[in-house]
Amino acid sequence: MGGSKWFGRVAGVLVLAFQTLVCQAEVLRVAVASNFMTPMEAIAAAFRAASGHELLLSFGSSGTFYAQISNGAPFDVLLSADRDIPRRLEDDGKVVPGSRFTYARGRLVLWSADPALIDGAALDADAGRLLQLSFRRLALANPVLAPYGRAAEQVLDHIDPADSLKAKLVRGENISQAYQFVATRNAELGFVALSQVLDPEGGWLSGSGWLVPEAFHEEIAQDVVWLQGAAGKPAAGELLEFLRGETARAIMRAQGYGVGD
């Protein structure tokens, strides 16, 4: 009898603890730059395991997210592909003060699904050899909407000041679409994020590529902000702290990113 009472009390405590955890768990709507899709999916799973909070992830171009948030889209957190858009949201009064910081630093790659098309060592020696490659289409993200597209445009300005490649350019709305153009061979090569084509063991998942020197474009520093509409959601602050932690940073490094602040 005593054992039954003890078990009942313990079971009651466990149920109460579980109910408290469920009540405290939150669902966050997180807008994520499309270049950060793979690491963010892994980070979301780790964050859920550590906190109990669920993340509803939306992936797209940072410029599109800026327009959506400006028009009232109910996102709680934005992980941008640059610093400019979070700063603009700060200026617009749409960010919890003091929440912005750099969570990752990206790298740009010229990549082809054809393993014989790009000789990275040759381009390291002379980037101008890009102009001698035989191809019909070169993909990049839309420079107006996507920071990786702006970086790609800066690389082309550096390599091709005469705009001889202009007629060959195809622009995706974001870096994921640029990658798809190349992966499906609708473009022979394109500028994509390192994380999209990096083999965890080193080298490329497939095809061939060239890691673009960072001196050819502005730094791809990616900032995160806690949006004002979610100021009352403590889970948003927990997510930002988690992004600063070693679990998230290890995921980023494994995916080809430098870590932030």
Rg, Cα atoms, Å: 22 Å
How many distinct folded domains?
A: 2
Largest sheet data: 6 strands, mixed
In the CATH hierarchy, what is the architecture of the largest domain at level 2?
3-Layer(aba) Sandwich
Give the DSSP E fraction (strand runs of 2 or more residues).
15-25%
Overall residue-averaged pLDDT value? 90
Biggest sheet: strands side by side, in what order?
2-1-3-10-4-11
Helix content: 40-55%
List the secondary-structure elements in sequence, H or E.
Answer: HEHEHEHEEHEHEHEHEEHHE
CATH topology of the largest domain: D-Maltodextrin-Binding Protein, domain 2
Within CATH, the superfamily of the largest domain carries the name Periplasmic binding protein-like II
Descriptors for this entry?
single chain, 261 residues, alpha/beta, D-Maltodextrin-Binding Protein, domain 2, 2 domains, six-stranded mixed sheet, five-stranded mixed sheet, 10 helices
Describe it:
This protein is α/β, with parallel strands linked by helices and 261 residues long. It has 2 domains: 143 residues, D-Maltodextrin-Binding Protein, domain 2; 104 residues, 3-Layer(aba) Sandwich (D-Maltodextrin-Binding Protein, domain 2). The protein is built from 10 helices and 11 strands. The chain has a 6-stranded mixed beta sheet with strand order 2-1-3-10-4-11. A 5-stranded mixed beta sheet has the order 7-6-8-5-9. Helix 6 links the parallel strand 6 and strand 7. Helix 2 packs antiparallel against helix 10. It is globular and about 60 Å long.
